[in-house]
Amino acid sequence: MALGLLSKGAAWIPLEWVRPLSGVALVVPFYHMVSDAHVPHVSHLYRFRSVAEFNADLDFLCSHFEPVSLEDIVDALNGTRTLPESCFHLTFDDGFREMHDIVAPILHRAGVPATFFLTTAFLDGGGLSHYNVLSVLADKLQSGSVSGAAMARIEALLPANGHAALIDRVVGISCTQKDRLCAMADALEVDVDEYVRETQPHLTSAEVESLTRQGFSIGSHSHDHSRYENLSLAGQLMQTRMSMDFLAARFGARPRSFAFPHNDTGVSDEFFNTVFSERTIDVSFGTSGLVTRRHPRHIERVSMEKTSAPATRILARQFTRATYFRIWPHADAPERSLKS
Q1: In the chain, where do the E strands start and end?
Q2: CA distance 180 to 173
Q3: What is the mean pLDDT of residues 39-67?
Q4: How far apart are CA 235 and CA 133, in angstroms?
Q5: ∠ CA 19-313-262 to the nearest 5 degrees?
Q6: Distances (CA, A) of 236 to 224, 250, 283
Q7: Which CATH class name applies to 3-127+202-327?
Q8: In DSSP terms, which residues pair with 66 in a beta bridge?
Q9: How many Å apart are CA 16 and CA 261, to the nearest integer?
């Protein structure tokens, strides 16, 4: 292969060429949603995989990588197991009910292990995260059933900012702007509690128990999906301990695994040192792809969403990026986790 093709801005190089050069053994893809339906609380936030697209991803992964379990990964971190030189572990964030209804049956038939990361505040109809509420509001706006008076209120709440469309302004409301979100819901006559009761967006405890009986792993995705960069260290630790301890006590979650909501921006070394030294968790996961490594027990994952690109292209891009940083090391791209 012509190494001159490798650059930080390179699009991608075929997977079979670049994967052996990357030094990466473990790939951890992550998803939030798999569905053929329109999902109001998600559809305005990101593009998610259809059932056919997810099946195609799974077929590709199983033909190019060996599936491993969460236990295998933790054993490798503990030094008691060696992972295959080319392997993958599937993960799913947010704990939507489609994980039980759609994803688990597909994985069970294929014999592929996975970990479902749950936001504990929203189990059993506990509510919706800030951004999922925004998606519901955007869906109501797009429905065409909003009165002129309501539209005037909304335009006053969200004055035009450049050329941003109104829908984009809605989903861009910061999680620190709770008053604005509530005013938007009032203007659109959206009752979030009623929406949750009618649609049951998240898993129930019975469904989580069903997942664990089938051999799937569960882990923490924080208590209420807060952005960790907006929390103090004490707040970050509280969210992590509260949710992880609940899952361990209620469902026997082992190993103790945690996936950051949104990303690990704003998380200090002290956070990692604390949660691992006190054994709040055994392993954590981020969202930055196949490059960065914040801590020896922290593993970055690859997003399989926001694009219609097939898995081969998504992963080829990631392996190309990893190979670039391996050949030309940069201060902001430390060694990858669990190398072959």
Answers
A1: 26-27, 29-31, 66-67, 87-88, 90-94, 114-118, 217-220, 257-259, 283-285, 298-299, 302-303
A2: 8
A3: 97
A4: 23
A5: 95
A6: 11, 21, 16
A7: alpha beta
A8: 87
A9: 32
Position 53 scores a pLDDT of 98
Alpha-carbon span 181 to 166, nearest angstrom: 14
Q: Kindly indicate the confidence band of residue 301, based on its pLDDT and cuts at 50, 70 and 90.
A: very high
Are 283 and 73 contacting, i.e. CB atoms less than 8 angstroms apart? yes
Amino acid at site 101 = D
In contact, 141 and 188? CB cutoff 8 Å: yes
Check if the beta carbon of residue 256 is closer than 8 Å to that of residue 281. yes
**Most distant CA atoms of the chain, gap in Å:** 65
Q: Which of 134, 121, 116 is nearest to 224 (CA)?
A: 121
Angle between helices 51-64 and 311-327 (to 10 degrees): 50
Interior CA angle at 174 toward 136 and 39, to 5°? 20
Q: Select from 206, 238, 210 the least CA-distant residue to 224.
A: 238
Dihedral, CA of residue 246, residue 248, residue 251 and residue 255, to nearest 10:
140
Note whether 251 and 276 are within 8 A (CB). no
Tell me: cis bond preceding 201? Omega within 30 of 0 counts: no
d(CA 188, CA 192): 11
**116 close to 217: Cβ distance less than 8 angstroms:** yes
Mean pLDDT over 248-252 rounds to 98
